[in-house]
Backbone:
């Protein structure tokens, strides 16, 4: 564990109330120590480095000015909030970040009262904070401040604009802080990103306007009812005089900035000036992702979540093993390029995750046929649908947990029209240290009821390539492929691709005592489990179903007729998923076997390593072996 030395100021700060006891001239030192502490701990305990280094001064300023946790800070994209965690009672536990039974990598209200709202996915802060602000007003809590901190690319999300629009239309005193670092995980894209680079607003003008407004209020010449009309008149006058129109002021939201987000003293001054102003307001700050650690400043994408690194030299510690399996995402990326070389209709789309899903290979090989649409999952799906409608063949790659945000688009814009596109769900199943907000465990259950969808999952990298080829070559409608985070099973994965007949599974081995049906890479845990119990004289049949929809009914009839004991295994929620589909088939066709479903239980699973979480959910090979013995031998 890394600890602050006794003489360090940070060591005396257990909670924000300790921070607020310090004189302002000590805050620069606090920022330096906080930044170094994040570097020290994360060099040995991997996490999201760059984003939190960029928000150190903002974090200190917020907790210095506002009375947290009574005042609410709602973080957007929670990996900006490591400094916040350290200052709010979790400094000593910070080394357990993202570890099993340790603290979460994202704000979590169950972990701390200082975490006002959960923040694993982007763009929800403005809507949530506005709800809190309105609730405070309804309860008569006129002294409570609510602050939404949005940044790291989250302003490109549609929900953020819905929140902005509503904030301008309903009475509230919300403060929105736009942390503008020109980055999400990869570089921010789109017109808004360039707009934030170009926008300028005179600080003198802002101060003059506020002084005039405050004076008129004291003279009782204006009131809250007339405030909106006056604000719109001011904005129009300003646009006329400066030949500029401010997007946020167009929403009738008071705009301040941009200001230097690494000047803690000036931020404290500005926050104190504007915090008690009535009505919604936005403070635009400019920060640098990775601030204070040169390697992270130079390469923000690489240092977003760098893993282990040498904090002295800036060298990332990456252990390469000979002949180790490739990451599933890299198999996807390379295979997409191979397919795109065969057919110029193939295009690639990702919502802000080109590095994470390895769309970067397609972008390099075919830059005009690969698209990063920013943090806009719904748009990525409907954009892909538009491409498909005009004869292109889109491969739309979205993390499984993020696809939840585009569910309506999958139904309304894709499935309803039966459009030919391939939806690739990366990070499907339990994902590990990112925890409950990122586990991609719901897709099988939420996609299964949707008509026209083909839903598949490969046992290994070879079948991932084969399914990508099948979705391109054999399907004429929407074709879903889900695959997990991390490495596959084999080093030699470049097979000659072929079609896997839609709706057909494989019998991997025959047996007489019990049948195990698995879907996707979790079947490799089944293979290990079978090896563990082979010495007990149990005869086990194993079926890799490959397709959840349509299911291989011929195989299921074989299983229903031959076996009285069945185990289903899936890396997803067992309620409504693959096991439920098997049970439905058996019931509909008059089979009455004893069925044990193995998968993610009906609860939000915490963070931890994949092996730890598999064991927790009873999905690891030893747990599966135990269930086999229990069903066949008893006990």
Residues:
């Amino acid at each position: 564990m890394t600890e602050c030395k006794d003489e360090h100021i940070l060591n005396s700060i257990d909670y924000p109330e300790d921070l607020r006891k310090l004189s302002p001239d000590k805050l620069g030192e606090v920022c330096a120590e906080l930044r170094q502490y994040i570097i020290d701990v994360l060099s040995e305990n991997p996490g999201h480095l760059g984003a939190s280094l960029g928000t150190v001064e903002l974090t200190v300023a917020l907790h210095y000015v506002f009375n947290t946790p009574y005042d609410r800070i709602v973080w957007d994209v929670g990996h900006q909030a490591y400094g916040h965690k350290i200052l709010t009672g979790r400094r000593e536990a910070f080394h357990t970040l993202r570890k099993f039974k340790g603290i979460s990598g994202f704000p979590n209200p169950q972990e701390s009262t200082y975490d006002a709202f959960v923040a694993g996915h982007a763009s929800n802060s403005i809507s949530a904070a506005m709800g809190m602000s309105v609730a405070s007003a309804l309860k008569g809590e006129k002294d409570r401040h609510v602050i939404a901190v949005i940044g790291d690319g989250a302003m490109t999300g549609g929900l953020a604009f819905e929140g902005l629009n509503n904030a301008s239309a309903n009475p509230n005193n919300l403060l929105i802080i736009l942390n503008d670092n020109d980055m999400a995980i990869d570089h921010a894209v789109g017109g808004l990103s360039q707009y934030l680079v170009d926008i300028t607003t005179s600080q003198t003008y802002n101060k003059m306007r506020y002084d005039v407004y405050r004076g008129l209020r004291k003279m009782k010449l204006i009131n809250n009812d007339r405030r909106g009309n006056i604000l719109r008149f001011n904005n129009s006058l300003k646009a006329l005089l400066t030949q500029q129109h401010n997007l946020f002021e167009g929403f009738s939201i008071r705009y301040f900035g941009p200001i230097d987000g690494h000047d803690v003293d000036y931020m404290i001054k500005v926050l104190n000036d504007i915090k008690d102003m009535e009505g919604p307001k936005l403070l635009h700050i400019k920060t640098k992702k990775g601030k204070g650690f040169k390697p992270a400043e130079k390469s923000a994408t690489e240092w977003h979540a760098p893993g282990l690194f040498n904090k002295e030299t800036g060298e990332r510690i990456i252990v390469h093993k000979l002949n180790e399996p490739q990451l599933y995402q890299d198999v996807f990326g390379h295979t997409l390029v191979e397919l795109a070389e065969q057919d110029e209709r193939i295009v690639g789309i990702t919502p802000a995750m080109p590095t994470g899903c390895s769309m970067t290979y397609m972008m390099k090989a075919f830059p005009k046929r690969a698209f990063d649409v920013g943090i806009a999952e719904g748009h990525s799906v409907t954009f892909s649908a538009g491409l498909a409608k005009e004869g292109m063949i889109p491969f739309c790659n979205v993390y499984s947990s993020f696809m939840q945000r585009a569910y309506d688009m999958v139904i309304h814009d894709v499935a309803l029209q039966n459009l030919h596109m391939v939806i690739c769900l990366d990070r499907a199943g339990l994902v590990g240290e990112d925890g409950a907000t990122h586990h991609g465990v719901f897709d099988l259950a939420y996609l299964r009821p949707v008509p026209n969808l083909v839903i598949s999952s490969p046992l290994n990298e070879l079948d991932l390539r084969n399914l990508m080829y099948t979705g391109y070559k054999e399907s004429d409608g929407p074709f879903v492929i889900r695959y997990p985070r991390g490495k596959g099973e084999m080093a030699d994965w470049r097979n000659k691709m072929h079609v896997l007949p839609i709706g057909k599974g494989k019998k991997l081995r025959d047996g007489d005592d019990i049948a195990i049906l698995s879907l996707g890479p979790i079947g490799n845990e089944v293979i290990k489990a079978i090896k563990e119990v082979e010495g007990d004289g149990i005869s086990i049949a194993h079926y890799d179903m490959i397709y959840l929809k349509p299911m291989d009914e011929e195989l299921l009839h074989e299983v229903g007729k031959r076996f009285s004991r069945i185990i289903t295994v899936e890396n997803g929620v067992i309620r409504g998923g693959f096991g439920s589909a098997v049970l439905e088939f058996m019931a509909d066709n008059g089979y009455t076997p004893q069925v044990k479903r193995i998968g993610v239980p009906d609860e939000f699973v915490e963070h931890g390593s994949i092996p730890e979480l598999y064991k927790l959910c009873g999905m690891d090979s030893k747990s599966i072996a135990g269930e086999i013995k229990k069903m066949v031998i008893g006990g």
